[in-house]
Design brief:
The protein is an all-alpha fold. It has 4 helices and no strands. It has one domain. The protein is elongated and about 55 Å long.
């Protein structure tokens, strides 16, 4: 067995963490748990995934906006002057 394979055999696949929240954010999390009918852990994962999806979508929109601004520059200038 090579060193690299031996070294990674006992590597933890998932990382554990403790999340300490201020009372206001904890109440929001509790509300999420109640509305979603899931654990706090699952609610936090859902929030992280929602943030990631929103950030990815915003990046796509920004890229599309930049393409349109360059491609349709003359049209946009004419519309601005109208």
């Amino acid at each position: 067995m090579s060193f690299e394979k031996w070294y990674h055999v006992d590597t933890i696949a998932f990382m554990a963490m403790t999340l300490r929240l201020p009372e206001a954010e904890n109440q929001i999390l509790e509300q999420m748990v109640e509305e979603l009918g899931c654990s706090k852990h699952q609610a936090v994962l859902t929030a992280i995934r929602a943030y990631d999806a929103k950030a990815y979508r915003q990046k796509q929109l920004d890229e599309i906006f930049n393409i349109v601004v360059v491609r349709d520059k003359e049209l946009l200038e004419r519309l601005a002057d109208a």
